[in-house]
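Quick entry, no commentary yet.
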Amino acid sequence: MLKSIAVMTSGGDSPGMNAAARAVVRTALYEGVKVWGINNGYHGLLEEDMFEMQSKNVGDIIQRGGTFLGTARCRRWQTPEGRMQGFKNLVDRGIQGLVVIGGDGSLRGAQLLSQETGIPIVGLPGTIDNDVWGSDYTIGCDTAANTIIDAINKLRDTASAHRRVIVLEVMGRRSGWLAMVSGISGGAEYILVPEVEYNLDEICDDMKRSYEAGKRYILVVVAEGVGSGKEIGKYISEKTGLDTRVSVLGYIQRGGSPTVIDRVKASQLGERAALAIISGLSDIVFGFDRGNVVSINLHDAVTNKKKLDPEYMHLAKVLA
């Protein structure tokens, strides 16, 4: 049984990271285990920016977006020398295991650390893109989707008033999950995601027919991995002659107070991660499968690509 562990957040921030870190800390303390917090991800680990945590350190944070531990990109961590220095910094403080909360890149860095040093590693999937293989859910995805829906509801009002085409660009460089679920639940006529080929000329022709039949507005949700929302909007405007406006939602999708789902699920994952690392388990990621917490092999999680649910793709086509 480990007596001292550390927790960190890494990569892009996501709502619910605080809830997960809070659960890790308080579960470990409940079990009589020391917990260290590492500030600013792998960068903080290399800079020895870490502190021993008490229960009060995670008070008043479950409702906050972002991450109180901070996060940063770190090129040095991509080198074996950098990872070995990080390992030394952990060992110097008697830290025997590490919980990493982050997306696929952060988990990949954790997997390399475990592989090269043997230190126990447990990961939690923290990313709004919901693109970590093996899990139906990632921390922050629900809050981000609800942020997009709020924007869609507001954009629909002005679109209807002016009979406009609205193109909304959302995050999702390699995964279209956010665009797909928000587009379905927001009633979008067209959802463009990296996983599905589309023909913009055919879409434009369909738009013109819809307007000729009396359509008041059209909503197009575009994942950033498909291309620039501005360029797509410009093409639609020139091809159809319809009044077209583009909204790029940007980093507002990462912020905001986490939803109930993100708070509860992140807390569940944090507790399981703490108990697992304390018991000496390693090289696993905890996620959800059909509502149940499951463990996923860390190597599998970072080497396999998660596919967009084909039922979502079918539903989007039927309901368009």
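second:
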Amino acid sequence: MARALYIHWPFCLKKCPYCDFNSHVRDEVDVELWQAALLAEMRAEAELARGETLESVFFGGGTPSLMPPSLVGAMLDEAQRLWGFAPDIEITLEANPSSVEASKFADLALAGVNRTSLGLQALDDAKLRFLGRLHDTQEGLNALEVAQKAFKRVSFDLIYALPGHDPVEWERELRQALSLGTSHLSLYQLTIEEGTRFATMVRQGDFAPLDDDAAADLYELTQDLTAQAGLPAYEISNHARPGDESRHNLTYWRYRDYVGIGPGAHGRRGGMATQRHRKPENWLAAVEQRGSGNQSEIAIPIGEQASEALLMGLRLHEGIDLAGLSARFGMSGEQLIEFEELSRLEDLGFVSRKGDHIAIAPQGMPLLDAILPRLVHDGLVSA
């Protein structure tokens, strides 16, 4: 049963040009109405997903740091009543580094948040302007300092491989990031997602994305510097001191059940995939009408579950236990993995295998998108 709870707050002050997440700009938000609706949906889902105590809660968005601390506290109190909390529960809230939002950090910690993921995105004013961020470098650094005083654990995001991004620039920025004393970093290469303003700009010729070879060089530099600093990659874009990995994200990547509430939130329970209405107004209307904003609840075929578990698990440095997955899904190793391809990739140094343990080797990680379809049995989805 579910061990993690995801709560989606869909509102932002501005839509960033690279963002394809379910985020919306609204002039006003009726906090009392939203609190009642989120609590109602949480109760409805708890009726279907009771069982294990929660090991993590994650407030994502949108911009959850725009939520009043009293709303965050009410959600956590109800979640604890409904499911119970593990003694060492991880409670994360995504935050933007504006001075207004940083002023809430102490109250958010008092409400129960013990980890924050801060959207710095760059440590350079020109890059922040390109990325459409509302803060500058100094405001971001100030917010990070406030966060480190307020929360037990702090992570922050940076985006690299921007147009024209060269290794000297990125090394300087990454060394500065590593000197700031957090135990976790999320380091993402800029990707141009369909439906974003950046996608339109690229089509119009306003800028050209960094080419693949240059981006690969920056990726290798990232792996080297983070490993030297004691924050090795535990997932292709996430780095942490051992023991400080995001437990919530590990729930996804290890293909465990989780509850997702709020507009556009996904969830997974007992072989069912759930998805809420994306548009905030549609979600609210559904909750008012039937107590849940769920738009769809679909049984996931066992082969598709196995395929997803492999594709997610192989993103992790720890890799997968083939025998464990075989037992979990009632399928043989030969039904899960293309063994001839595995041997070829192993000979090339892209994959490592020790008994039933399979992992993507460091030199294979930059080629992950090409490797996974060859490695995972192509008949799984129809199984």
